[in-house]
Each structure stands twice: as structure tokens, then as C-alpha cells.
Amino acid sequence: HFEGWAAIENGVRLRFANFIYLEQGAYLDQGTYLHACPQGIRIGQNTLVMHGAVLHVYNFRNLPHAGITIGKDSLIGEYSIIRGQGGVQIGDRVYTSPFSQIIAVDHVFQDPDRPFTEQGITAKGIIIEDDVWIGSGAIIIDGVTIGKGAVVAAGAVVTENVPPHTVV
To answer: Which among 92, 12, 84 has a CA at the least distance from the CA of 51?
Structure first.
């Protein structure tokens, strides 16, 4: 679905395209892959999704909050991955550097007598507020909120909430 015009380069793969919403000026670079679900993927006005990025909402478990929403004037860096099973909400003017990962799903592995594949998953969701910069190779784990204006350093693994206007 388009609201205004959007640019889609060659080599872009869209799965369940009827659940993908591109707002005015959204851009999908070559080699991006978007896999939606009924709650969908929404890419905001003038937001760029760069080469090789993967936005994936594989919701075969009927998770209630699955989906990815990205605000306006944001940039998803080259080869970044966003997994939205628990829901990912990204604000306005959020930049993810190349190879960052935002993973809103996790396996349960508390019972040592059972394989993790039989223990289920968690899907708490991730919120990234406005004006956040995520450095190259950073990983944001399920259940985390990153406050407005925060900076996540390159290579960081974020497992706890990040207060606004802080560097981690």
C-alpha cells in the first residue's frame, strides 16, 4: 500500500506485500527483504531502508503484537535486521548503522532437560523513541526500550532499557 509515492529499487523481495505500507517518500534499496504479517510493516515518510536490510515478521504463532512500524525521516542501515515477532516501534529520525540487529523475539531455555526448541519463545517487543542513533553492529534484545535522543555505540549488546539522552 502506498500513501503518496515511494521508490523501490530492483532486487527487492516483498513477502505478503498486501500488509506492507509505504508512506510518502519511503525508499527500499536494492536487495532489501520485507516479510510482513497481518499487523504489517509500516515505513514512514522519507524513511530509507538501505541495501540488504531485512525486516521480518514471521508470525506463525499468532503473536498479538507482531509487526514493525518505523517513523518518518529514519534510516535503516545496510544489512541491518529487524525481527518484529514481539512488535517493533521505531520513532522519527532514528538511524541504524550497518549490520545492526533489532530482535523482538527470544527462545526460552530455562529447563536444561528439554531442548530449547520445545520451550517456546518470548516476544515482548522493542520500542525505540525519536532521535536515536544505533551504531554499527549493535544488537537490541527483546523487551528493551531506548529513550529519545539516546546513542547506542557500535558493537553494543543492549539487554536493558536505555534512558533518554544517554550513550551506552
So the answer is: 12
Q: What is the largest CA-CA distance in the chain?
A: 54
Strand ranges of the sheet holding 88-90, from the earlier edge strand across to the other edge? 2-3, 20-23, 41-43, 68-70, 88-90, 126-128, 145-146
92 or 4, higher pLDDT: 92
Distance from first CA to last CA of the chain, Å, rounded? Answer: 37
Q: What is the pLDDT of residues 80-111, one digit of tens each?
A: 999 999 999 999 999 999 999 999 988 878 88
Give the angle subtended at the CA of 75 by the CAs of 69 and 78, to the nearest 5°. Answer: 110
Catalytic residues: 107
**Whole-number pLDDT of residue 60:** 65
Q: Which amino acid belongs to residue 96?
A: T
> In the prediction, which pLDDT does 61 show?
66
Q: What is the model's pTM?
A: 0.92
CA distance 88 to 153: 20
Residue 155: half-sphere exposure toward Cβ, Cα within 13 Å: 0
